[in-house]
Amino acid sequence: MYEIRPETHADEYEVEALYDLCFAPGRTALSSYRLRDGVPPVAGLCLLLRDPSGILLAAIRYWPVHVGGNAALLLGPIAVHPTAQGEGLGGMLMRDSLGRASDLGWSRVLLVGDAPYYSRFGFERLDHVQMPPPTNPDRVLGLELRPGAWVDVAGQVTRAASQDASAGLA
Ligand SMILES: CC(C)(COP(=O)(O)OP(=O)(O)OC[C@H]1O[C@@H](n2cnc3c(N)ncnc32)[C@H](O)[C@@H]1OP(=O)(O)O)[C@@H](O)C(=O)NCCC(=O)NCCS
Fold first, then answer.
1. Element (H, E) at 32
2. Residue 162: is its pLDDT beyond 80?
3. Dmax of the chain from CA atoms?
4. Which of 1, 10, 100, 157 has its CA 20 to 30 A from that of 128?
5. What does DSSP assign to residue 137?
6. What is the distance in A from the centroid of ligand 1 to the CA of 153?
């Protein structure tokens, strides 16, 4: 059984290397990264999984954003090492981190990703929410952690203030 642990500053280099391995080159040029520039990730929601020998297998991060003046979480990146994909680790990190987000009092989550994967966690297309261009609107997905949290929430996703993440990584 793997133990899910919060990411610390000491893990950052390895997590970045895992993301570089799992995503296409130039990932940080994506418009979603402009929402993360200069804003620390959310304390307590950046999590990772290592195998018993300490090799990093999976990681997830979240950032605070605003949508039409409402606070929201931007989920991602999430990545699982290619040798460990399809074993349920991504699902473990998704469910665990979303539970922690709810416990921390967050109401709504959005991400840019493949609906066929994220729908299993309850994510649905957000019709009235626009990520910075160029983003395929079909990939802008949301999840309510509190009933009705996305009702009447619409508009551009914008960068949060740096203090909205509280302390960032430990
Ligand atoms: C996407 C990712 C995080 C999923 O983690 P994982 O540990 O491999 O996933 P799980 O084992 O929890 O779930 C596997 C299931 O998800 C499905 N799945 C994985 N990626 C998918 C995708 N992009 N679209 C649709 N289904 C997908 C698998 O087919 C499998 O389906 P099954 O349960 O019906 O067999 C991982 O594959 C990964 O790191 N991919 C590369 C980076 C990436 O694309 N990150 C997400 C950005 S949107």
1. helix 31-34
2. no
3. 47
4. 100
5. G
6. 28
pLDDT for residue 164: 73
Residue ID of nearest Cα to ligand 1 atom 21: 117
CB 152 within 8 A of CB 107: no
Length of the chain (residues):
170
Residue 119 CB-half CA count within 13 A:
7
Band (166; pLDDT cuts 50, 70, 90):
low
Domains of the chain: 4-165 (3.40.630.30)
Centroid of chain to Cα 123: 12
Per residue in 67-85, pLDDT tens?
998 999 999 999 999 999 9
34 in Cβ contact with 133 (< 8 Å) = no
Ligand 1 centroid to Cα of residue 113, in Å, is 11
